[in-house]
Amino acid sequence: MRPHRWSLLLVPGLTVALAACGGGGGGSTRSDSATPSLVGASALPAVGKPVDGGTLRFATDQEPDCLDPHVSPADMTATVDRNVVDSLVAQAPDGKIVPWLAASWKTSPDLRTYTFTLRKDVTFQDGAPLDAAAVKANLDHIAAPATKSQYAVNLLGPYTGSKVIDAHTLQVGFKKPNAPFLQAASTAYLGILSPKSLAKGNDALCNSVVGSGPFSLAGWTKRSSLTLKRNPDYKWPPPFASGQGPAHLDEVVYRFLPDDAVRLGALTSGQADLVQSLPPRSVATVKKDSKLQFFYASVPGANYNLFFNNAKGVFADENVRVAFQRSLDLDALVKSASDGQFQRGWSLIGPATVGYDAKTENSWPYDQGLANQKLDSAGWKERDSAGYRTKDGKRLVVDWLQPPQGEQQNGPRSTLAQLIQASVKQIGIQLKLDPVPIGTYLKRYTSGEYDLADYSFVRNDPDILRLEFSSATRPHDGIPNQNVSLLADPTIDKLFAEGSSTLDVAKRAAAYAKVQEYLNTHAVSIPGYVPTNLYAAKKQVQGLVWDAAAFPVLQSAWIAAG
Fold it and tell me: Is there a single domain that holds both residue 175 and residue 307?
């Protein structure tokens, strides 16, 4: 997640992915056919024979807040950890779930028990062996209240515990059917850490993560850089990986450069090899440079969405929510804010997501006339001298809770917020952009003290909608859960239960399609735009691969001479 994206990869018949259902699963709808699109474990076509050795200097705008993927929901945590930490299973380019650390598994008929048979040749980077006890320790760590997991615990679902059957067989239990679990287990956030590192405690885990992946952590200088070194013993990537042995690169150095100009300057001056979060306005410049290459990855999961507080305040009234929704010409606003690089959202999940319902497209067009009618119906009929709507002498004011200025304002978000502010003013809504200190932000986020909030979440499965709109995932007790719309709707909860209770592709697709339609019809939240990672790299950078969640996997990357 980047809230703000903060958050503040086969067993026949057992796959839980919706690869065959309407839309999603790794496609992109952008029409720029000359530019490589990388989603769903896609790869850039390599030129020449791979070269071993060298350092990849990776410049990015973000820094992990905590390296423990069981705690942090941040995109940058997963970006690093996906190269350090392996998962029980993997999600293949076609959306299917295939073996990884687990060689095979069985699922009980009621989908409440998963029995995994683990590989016997896997060793963690600190020498500890992979066994059933190690996996149990990881799942228990995720579920433990003391871990204060912000995302992984919800991915894990209604976990009741794990039972070690023998050294390499583990039984995982849930109190309810949990069909989405296998896909969740493919993510970096449910990645398997060394049991030795788990024993060191939460603070140590946040600063140093130990996995079984192709790279290990070599050092982290906060606010500056983080270095990974090659794991020479690595030989257990997913079966679809282009290379089945150790990485080609000796090192990967992440440089944290939040300033857009500085980050691009590091690439053009030769101080960086790969840049993530290329600003949209710089795409044309990169395309003109013969020494550079440009490519993008449409991110699956929850779009960058605007979440209305459905529980209290002005947006408890559906008429006001619909008015706000229909007052936005999102095609024009997103195009303007992103220099034409991003596409507007129609559903609350993006087109690259398994289970995306294409029927949502064009289902709620811009209609300022309808927006005005809805506000009249809600009783906001009068206007004051500034042109804002009033009722009972009170102005129609919407408070948009935001992190501190300049913090995690990814891509076009700040510009888009200002454009939305101007748009809703035309129908008489005063939108206050309310950046506050991070401590205040988290307090108000968890207590529902806002009218509007925003973020996006990465996951290549429609069950991401459950995390965002289930009554069980509302923020509580200081835990910033994902349901910031504070929705508690039995209709939606029933559909989520249906989607979690079957492995039948068509039935799961139908349940989540109904969810997407319902959320749009009732304007529970507004899809903003489809998160898209824009990259620029030197032409010498080869063999780049992205996993099903659009995180870069560097095991097969290499640097050509020249």
Answer: no
